[in-house]
Amino acid sequence: MKPNNTEPSWAIPKVQQIVSELVLKLFYLFSPARRLPRHAKPPRVTVGSPETFVTLGREASFFESELRGRNGSPHRSFGDRRERCSTSSKRYEAPAVPFPSSELLLENVMLVVYTVRTAHQAGSWPDDEEGIEGMFELLRLGLRGSVTVLDVESAWDPTQTDELLTLAQERYGSTLVLGSHHVVGNTEPTSLEEATELFAKCGLKGRAHAAKVVLSPVTEEDGSLAHEASRQRDADIAANSKEEVLIPNISLVLQEMGQQSRVLNERFTPVTHEALPFVAAPGQLSARELMTRKISQRLITPRRYTILGHMIDYSVSPQMHNAAFEACNLPHSFVRSDFETVEEFVGAELFRSDTFGGASVTIPHKQDIIPYVNILSDSAKAIGSVNTVNAVYHEKGSASWNEGNDGDATKRRTLYGDNTDWIGIYNPLSQSIATATSTRNNDGTTTATRGTILILGAGGTARAAAYAAQK
User: I want to staple 226 with a disulfide (CB 3.0 to 4.6 A). Which of 39, 75, 172, 251 is the partner?
Assistant: First the structure.
């Protein structure tokens, strides 16, 4: 894929500058003088938006020393170093995301997806016996580093895979597991049954948080095969399994013939950017191209969102959300709904329309909206108020469809009520203060003791703060 000739002259140098800065930060944080494990290659850095995904390989002794810090005192976790890296990261203005200034500081948005891709799975890591041993060693290293997502290929030794997943469950619960499988080098088409079984394998016997299957096309008809297999797997679980749970699926087909799979894929689709001089994989689309195709194929339904309250002329929520929709190429809109009572709102055209997507709820309606919500989250129940309403529509013929109510949108949807106030309190506090301290007993054991949080106030925000403290 050639660079877009219509892009500004600074685009490519700016990308190179971003990558250079990131590499320098990584060398500073991760001590490049230390040797790499055998088979390992230098870190691969990929610039993405809004997260930066980093794949790293370093020996275990390095992580042990870094986790303890230079003076021997332990850091909180690998996330501590990640936080120090992300708070000094800068995002520059790009053609597809017009930020108001040329430099914007982004804090605590860096995610680490840790991958060791073997030659058998479209990568370059050796897949002989010694190489697989080294792969599992590096995957354990990723767990010890508290990476955000650990990519575990489903094709390898079941015993070693089981030991790795047991270790992840018992000691590293904050790391999410992605089960993956890549079909490469095949000359015969993959059947729907085979692709569906690959999704089942990538579930890692119920221990994966998401499953990723990547196929290689043989014919033009293979472009949607991975998506069809993903839906078939979900249907199989819903119909036959009482133990397995539905997990997110990533379904992709490589090359130009597989571009439709990227359009059909519903989550975590890898994208490129117009400013980059090349694509990471054949057939990749930019986010703008991807969204344009989804909208043209009516895979995304335009929705109307609102902020519900009274005397809310001061609110800048419409400006914020509409700018975000525009930047993400989403066909939605966001307006104000200023009503004295909730009853006026639920009787209005917006709420009863089949284009209603949800609402942000502010004073004085956070409690009064509850009777009109179908399902409440645990936080909304505990706090006793709702600040977020999300509308989910049901397809005709589905189990949740109410026959005979085609003309009434309120009968064809489920409204979910949530309270996210506590998250805005919990996240910054969890990064600034310890959630527990340990006291060492005479017999060598430790006892965890919790701290005390002072809350000033008794309103809805105070209840959210109390819920955050409880968490």
Answer: 251
97: exposed, middle or buried (Cβ count in 10 Å: 0-12, 13-18, 19+): middle
What domains appear along the chain, each with residue ranges and CATH number?
11-296 (3.20.20.70), 304-419 (3.40.50.10860), 424-470 (no CATH)
**pTM attached to this predicted model:** 0.64
Distance CA(191)–CA(209), nearest Å, equals 25
pLDDT tens across the length of the chain (471 residues) = 444 444 444 444 555 555 555 544 444 444 333 333 333 333 333 333 333 333 333 323 333 333 333 333 333 444 444 444 443 333 333 333 333 333 433 344 567 889 999 998 888 899 899 999 999 999 999 998 888 899 999 999 899 999 999 999 888 888 999 999 999 888 888 999 999 999 999 999 999 999 999 999 888 888 889 999 999 998 888 887 667 788 999 999 999 999 999 999 988 898 998 888 888 888 899 988 999 999 999 899 899 999 999 999 999 999 999 999 998 889 999 999 999 999 999 999 999 998 999 999 998 999 999 999 999 999 999 999 999 999 998 776 555 555 444 445 556 789 999 999 999 998 888 766 655 555 667 776 666 666 778 999 888 888 999 999 888
Buried-state track 194-203, b at ≥16 Cβ within 10 A, e below 16 = ebbbbbbbbb
